[in-house]
Amino acid sequence: MFYRDRKEWADLEPVPQDDGPNPVVKIAYSDKFTDVYDYFRALLKNDEKSDRAFTLTAEAIELNAANYTVWHYRRVLLQALEKDLREEMRYITAIIEDQPKNYQVWHHRRMVVEWLNDPSEELEFIAEILSQDAKNYHAWQHRQWVLKEYKLWDSELEYVEQLLEEDVRNNSAWNQRHYVISHTTGYSDPSILNREVQYSLKQIKKAPHNESVWNYLKGILQDRGLSSHPGLLEQILELKETHCSPYLLGFLVDIYEDSLENTSGDQVEVLSKALELCELLAQEKDTIRREYWSYVGRSLQMKYCSDDPSTTSSQHESPILGMKP
Amino acid sequence: MLDKHADYIAAYGSKKDDYEYTLSEYLRMSGIYWGLTVMDLMGQLTRMNQQEISDFIKSCQHDCGGVSASIGHDPHVLYTLSAVQILSLYDNVNVLDVDKVVEYVRGLQQEDGSFAGDKWGEIDTRFSFCAVATLALLGRLDAINMDKAVEFVLSCMNFDGGFGCRPGSESHAGQIYCCTGFLSIAGQLHQVNADLLGWWLCERQLPSGGLNGRPEKLPDVCYSWWVLASLKIIGRIHWIDKSKLRSFILACQDEETGGFADRPGDMVDPFHTLFGVAGLSLLGEGQIKDVNPVLCMPEDVLERLGLHPDLLS
């Protein structure tokens, strides 16, 4: 039954939608929607804090869960009417199940969890949502907040591994892996770092064309030296024979670049290999990013090529003009 | 096809009986910003009703200074920015009480430098961007603790060079746009690892030529904006295969109705129309005005305001 026909709502004057400019032409959109929102606006106008208002917010949310003003109002009512927050948890659980890709619903849940100071349902609930869409950005944010806020790290690495078993290309899971380890053991311990390197290489064997794992591998090693990790270059060169990909070739370039940067002595061979790979990537293996590969090749050349004429001429640079090569 | 797109946007504003239009009331201010900006980029801003829109915006500013998406909605930094952007297009920010806007934005900054979206406290780097973009347009960047704001955004930089919504959050092109835009306005772009981030961003390009927002996801025309603008800001826009991207964006047009959809064949909407056209502008499309990659507004508007956010080269 419409609110406009309900006796117990007769005291309220419904407020039609006011987008400002032209008068609203109410033809196509649903009568129910108009009715509920006209009464929502009436309640807001009177700043009414009652059970009937609270009940109506649920209807308004059902019709448009993205409407942040309705959620605000519901929270105000939750507090003003001292509503049962456990019941609210059940409510928000149902809403999120139905509409998991909405900022407001997750923020609302977080507020309720904070008010209750009880995260005990969270990890299981989020896992349930992720089982429907393992990359839901909102779900992952909420999960990270729960883990950090309530220090619930214990089983998270295991959970991440399970997700990666199901889909090794899940970038969110790789990000989570980094998050968990960063917040627990860290990567400074060489045995942990190596464990992660070997884990990554294992996943690469399973699915060589996987952006995420290569970004992860580079990410964990870049501050610690790609070229100095024991045995890594050899392992990559081995993989190149059987599980090659543009990512692998790009990673090799990264290793060679790191070697050029951090090793002294003659590196002509290393430079030459790196340049060859950049050429291969630009011309054949990753042509859509040829500009990037050309840039990398040029940069390496400029920086490390000892017979680059421009570097020799810098020895003759004019002290007055201070011209750079 | 620009005329068709302009017709689509011009008509969209008047379809107030449309269900989708009603459903999107909670973001109306941003919807108006998208529509007006794309019209201005196509040189057709005059087709929109400046007076009505200005009156509407005025009635959306609350006592606290913040602006809501529509009448009867609560204020939020997202819609505060959209309102200021719209009024900047019209060179009429004084429709709002500017001092109060500044107060509202200042009040959203947290101790750790982050910004909440509104009084309910959701934290997100999107809001850091909205805050400084709003203040930059009003010439009031001094109102916040910029050092702390920068510190927070940098704490959201990830191992892959990208940025997420909060520290530790997965890198995402939309968030990267907000953070690089933020750092540009803050004069801190040198803190970005441009080669590393540039690589992550150009990895978004799929064989179809379209761009996705994170690894292993589908392309969407709005990423033509988030990714491309970010690349432009960090001086690496040439790392994208431009002609392939252009083909993808054009394929997202609807030749019958006008407007752009998220991907070829889907329903069009003003959001994707703006970002499709803005993306084409960044790619150098002659018939579209130059768009500023930091603020997603016509360059000539920023010129008038004397705003030149940094870009890396």
Automatic annotation (TrEMBL), chain A:
<dbReference type="Pfam" id="PF01239">
    <property type="entry name" value="PPTA"/>
</dbReference>
<keyword id="KW-0677">Repeat</keyword>
<keyword id="KW-0637">Prenyltransferase</keyword>
<comment type="function">
    <text>Essential subunit of both the farnesyltransferase and the geranylgeranyltransferase complex. Contributes to the transfer of a farnesyl or geranylgeranyl moiety from farnesyl or geranylgeranyl diphosphate to a cysteine at the fourth position from the C-terminus of several proteins having the C-terminal sequence Cys-aliphatic-aliphatic-X. May positively regulate neuromuscular junction development downstream of MUSK via its function in RAC1 prenylation and activation.</text>
</comment>
<protein>
    <recommendedName>
        <fullName>Protein farnesyltransferase/geranylgeranyltransferase type-1 subunit alpha</fullName>
        <ecNumber>2.5.1.58</ecNumber>
        <ecNumber>2.5.1.59</ecNumber>
    </recommendedName>
</protein>
<feature type="region of interest" description="Disordered">
    <location>
        <begin position="306"/>
        <end position="325"/>
    </location>
</feature>
<keyword id="KW-0808">Transferase</keyword>
<comment type="subunit">
    <text>Heterodimer of FNTA and FNTB (farnesyltransferase). Heterodimer of FNTA and PGGT1B (geranylgeranyltransferase).</text>
</comment>
<dbReference type="GO" id="GO:0005953">
    <property type="term" value="C:CAAX-protein geranylgeranyltransferase complex"/>
</dbReference>
<dbReference type="GO" id="GO:0005965">
    <property type="term" value="C:protein farnesyltransferase complex"/>
</dbReference>
<keyword id="KW-0007">Acetylation</keyword>
<dbReference type="GO" id="GO:0004662">
    <property type="term" value="F:CAAX-protein geranylgeranyltransferase activity"/>
</dbReference>
<feature type="compositionally biased region" description="Polar residues">
    <location>
        <begin position="308"/>
        <end position="317"/>
    </location>
</feature>
<dbReference type="GO" id="GO:0004660">
    <property type="term" value="F:protein farnesyltransferase activity"/>
</dbReference>
<comment type="similarity">
    <text>Belongs to the protein prenyltransferase subunit alpha family.</text>
</comment>
<dbReference type="InterPro" id="IPR002088">
    <property type="entry name" value="Prenyl_trans_a"/>
</dbReference>
<keyword id="KW-0460">Magnesium</keyword>
From TrEMBL, chain B:
<dbReference type="InterPro" id="IPR026873">
    <property type="entry name" value="Ptb1"/>
</dbReference>
<keyword id="KW-0637">Prenyltransferase</keyword>
<dbReference type="InterPro" id="IPR045089">
    <property type="entry name" value="PGGT1B-like"/>
</dbReference>
<comment type="function">
    <text>Catalyzes the transfer of a geranylgeranyl moiety from geranylgeranyl diphosphate to both cysteines of proteins with the C-terminal sequence -XXCC, -XCXC and -CCXX.</text>
</comment>
<feature type="domain" description="Prenyltransferase alpha-alpha toroid">
    <location>
        <begin position="3"/>
        <end position="297"/>
    </location>
</feature>
<dbReference type="Pfam" id="PF00432">
    <property type="entry name" value="Prenyltrans"/>
</dbReference>
<keyword id="KW-0479">Metal-binding</keyword>
<protein>
    <recommendedName>
        <fullName>Geranylgeranyl transferase type-2 subunit beta</fullName>
        <ecNumber>2.5.1.60</ecNumber>
    </recommendedName>
</protein>
<keyword id="KW-0808">Transferase</keyword>
<keyword id="KW-0677">Repeat</keyword>
<dbReference type="InterPro" id="IPR008930">
    <property type="entry name" value="Terpenoid_cyclase/PrenylTrfase"/>
</dbReference>
<comment type="similarity">
    <text>Belongs to the protein prenyltransferase subunit beta family.</text>
</comment>
<dbReference type="GO" id="GO:0046872">
    <property type="term" value="F:metal ion binding"/>
</dbReference>
<keyword id="KW-0862">Zinc</keyword>
<dbReference type="InterPro" id="IPR001330">
    <property type="entry name" value="Prenyltrans"/>
</dbReference>
<dbReference type="GO" id="GO:0004663">
    <property type="term" value="F:Rab geranylgeranyltransferase activity"/>
</dbReference>
<dbReference type="GO" id="GO:0005968">
    <property type="term" value="C:Rab-protein geranylgeranyltransferase complex"/>
</dbReference>
